[in-house]
């Protein structure tokens, strides 16, 4: 990775694949001398011993001054207190920045802490955000319940219509915020087009009035798309999902340009949403190193399951970016690619059970979900995604229930819609459970 290259010293990692880097990282890390361990040991220390008052003073002076060459003189970071930084998180952040192809990454206690941090450093009283009209529920709540108190207003628009996005940009707009694929309908946003439009608008703006683009890429994971390579400024992830992979820990990350690191670190220090070292560790040694192999397996299964769902008469529509019938199939092929350039449509499926009217499809979906919850062996009724176990949920009555039924339909969330997050099982096992519940409830 660019960041770690020292002038005159060839990087031993050059020439290896991205996947090798996700497994090994930097191997011998100047942050921490653990060179005889196969894995970095878990760091479990809230505070750190300092050799002298002078060393303590230097640590405080250097904290969040990574871009200030004059202030930073020590060769390895001086650890002071876990809320400021510690080795497991530093190593994880370096590997996450690499995975997304960004300059720098800063981790947080949760995906929501990461989202509030990136929006926190980019906005202030009087700023406006233009956000997609379909968002993760808590992000929507953050923007509608809390930010108005800080005089930060959000306009919600459909990001598949860039003319509408442009119409809603004012001189106060500081952030364009979107998810792709969106939760739960899997609609995509053309990230390259959003970046190009923003660059054009920014060419007439000063540094202070510049607009930044932020993408929540959790549904794709860094394996399936890298928005920064398409011109997007910031990417956020919930580490709780595919990156963590095993569902043991909650965490989040912001990946962005080098200048943002100090602000993101200061924000984390002062608002306090730090990722615990004990939660950084499984992501560092298990989640990220296995991301590629898990995602490759999961999307293969997702394709077979999506094809099975297409054959069932009870199902009105199946949305999976890998299907030829996906409404934005061309964009999916262009935007969702793995590290080797192969099409990578992800592991999320959305499908709709038919009903004569919205109320009837809602009942159908509930009946089906309850049957799965009671009888399935390889599918679990639970929110979250990117887990090694296949998870199913009913957005209409669960994750998106705060949105009134009529508004759900307007946002494209059919009351009969079911969200399926494929895990590591064989497709036949998942299909067996789905077939059984479809047969029994229709
Ligand atoms: C889960 C999720 C979040 C929030 O992440 P937490 O780790 O639960 O705070 C944000 N965005 C998307 C798309 C998610 O799926």
CATH class of the largest domain: Alpha Beta
What number of domains?
2
Shape: globular
Helix/strand structural class: alpha/beta
Give the overall pLDDT as a whole number. Answer: 92
Order of helices and strands: HHHEHEHEHEHEHEEHHEHEHEEHEH
Oligomer: single chain
- In what range is the share of β-strand residues? 5-15%
Bound molecules: pyridoxal-5'-phosphate
The gist of it:
Helices cover 38% and strands 14% of the residues. The chain is built from 14 helices and twelve strands. Strands 1-7-6-5-4-2-3 form a seven-stranded mixed beta sheet, sandwiched between helices. The protein has a five-stranded mixed beta sheet with strand order 8-9-12-11-10.
Q: What key attributes describe this structure?
A:
442 residues; alpha/beta; Aspartate Aminotransferase, domain 2; Aspartate Aminotransferase, domain 1; 7-stranded mixed β-sheet; 5-stranded mixed β-sheet; 14 helices; globular; binds pyridoxal-5'-phosphate
SSE arrangement:
Elements: H1 18-24, H2 53-62, H3 87-100, E1 104-108, H4 111-122, E2 128-132, H5 137-146, E3 153-157, H6 162-167, E4 173-179, H7 191-202, E5 212-216, H8 221-224, E6 234-238, E7 252-256, H9 260-271, H10 277-310, E8 315-319, H11 329-335, E9 348-353, H12 358-375, E10 379-381, E11 390-393, H13 405-410, E12 417-421, H14 427-441
Parallel strand pairs: 2-3, 2-4, 4-5, 5-6, 10-11
Antiparallel strand pairs: 1-7, 6-7, 8-9, 9-12, 11-12
Helix pairs in contact: 1-10, 3-10, 4-9, 10-14, 12-14
Task: Explain how this protein is built.
The protein is α/β, with parallel strands linked by helices and 442 residues long. The protein folds into two domains: 18-287, Aspartate Aminotransferase, domain 2, CATH 3.40.640; 292-441, Aspartate Aminotransferase, domain 1 (Alpha-Beta Complex). Helices cover 38% and strands 14% of the residues. A seven-stranded mixed β-sheet has the order 1-7-6-5-4-2-3, with helices on both faces. It has a five-stranded mixed β-sheet with strand order 8-9-12-11-10. Helix 7 (191-202) links the parallel strand 4 (173-179) and strand 5 (212-216). Helix 1 packs antiparallel against helix 10, helix 10 (277-310) packs across helix 14 (427-441) and helix 12 packs across helix 14 (427-441). The longest helix is centred in the middle third of the chain and has 34 residues, at 277-310. Mean pLDDT is 92; it is low at 1-10.
């Amino acid at each position: 990775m660019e960041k770690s290259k020292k002038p005159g010293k060839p990087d031993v990692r050059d020439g290896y694949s991205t996947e090798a880097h996700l497994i090994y990282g930097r191997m011998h890390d100047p942050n921490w001398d653990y060179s005889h361990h196969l894995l970095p040991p878990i760091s479990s220390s809230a505070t750190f011993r300092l050799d002298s008052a002078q060393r303590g003073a230097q640590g405080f002076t250097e904290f969040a001054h990574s871009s200030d060459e004059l202030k930073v003189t020590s060769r390895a970071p001086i650890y002071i207190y876990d809320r400021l930084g510690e080795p497991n998180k530093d190593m994880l952040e370096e590997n996450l920045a690499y995975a997304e192809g960004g300059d720098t990454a800063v981790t947080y206690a949760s995906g929501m802490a990461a989202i509030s941090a990136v929006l926190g450093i980019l906005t202030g009283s009087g700023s406006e955000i233009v956000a997609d009209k379909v968002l993760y529920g808590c992000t929507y709540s953050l923007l509608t319940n809390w930010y108005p108190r800080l005089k930060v207003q959000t306009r919600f628009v459909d990001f598949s219509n860039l003319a509408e996005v442009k119409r809603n940009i004012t001189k106060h707009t500081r952030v364009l915020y979107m998810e792709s694929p969106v939760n739960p309908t899997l609609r995509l946003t053309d990230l390259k087009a959003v970046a190009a439009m923003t660059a054009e608008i920014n060419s007439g703006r000063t540094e202070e009035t510049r607009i930044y683009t932020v993408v929540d890429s959790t549904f794709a994971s860094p394996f399936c798309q890298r928005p920064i390579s398409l011109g997007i400024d910031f990417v956020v992830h919930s580490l709780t999902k595919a990156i963590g992979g095993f569902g043991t820990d909650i965490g989040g990350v912001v990946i962005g340009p080098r200048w943002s690191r100090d602000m993101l670190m200061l924000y984390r220090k002062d608002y306090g949403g730090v990722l615990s070292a004990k939660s950084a560790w499984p992501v560092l040694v298990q989640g990220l190193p296995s991301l590629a192999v898990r995602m490759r397996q999961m999307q293969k299964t997702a394709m077979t399951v999506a094809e099975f769902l297409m054959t069932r008469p009870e199902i009105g529509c199946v949305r999976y970016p890998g299907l030829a019938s996906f409404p934005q199939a061309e964009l999916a092929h262009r935007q969702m690619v793995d590290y080797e350039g192969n099409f990578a449509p992800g592991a999320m499926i959305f499908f709709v059970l038919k009903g004569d009217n919205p109320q009837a499809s809602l009942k159908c979906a509930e009946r089906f979900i309850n049957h799965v919850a009671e009888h399935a062996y390889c599918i679990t009724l639970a929110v979250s995604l990117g887990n090694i176990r296949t998870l199913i949920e009913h957005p209409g009555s669960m994750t998106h229930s705060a949105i009134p039924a009529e508004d759900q339909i307007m946002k494209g969330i059919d009351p009969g819609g079911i969200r399926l997050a494929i895990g590591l099982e064989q497709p036949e096992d998942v299909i067996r459970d789905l077939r059984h519940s479809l047969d029994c409830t229709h």
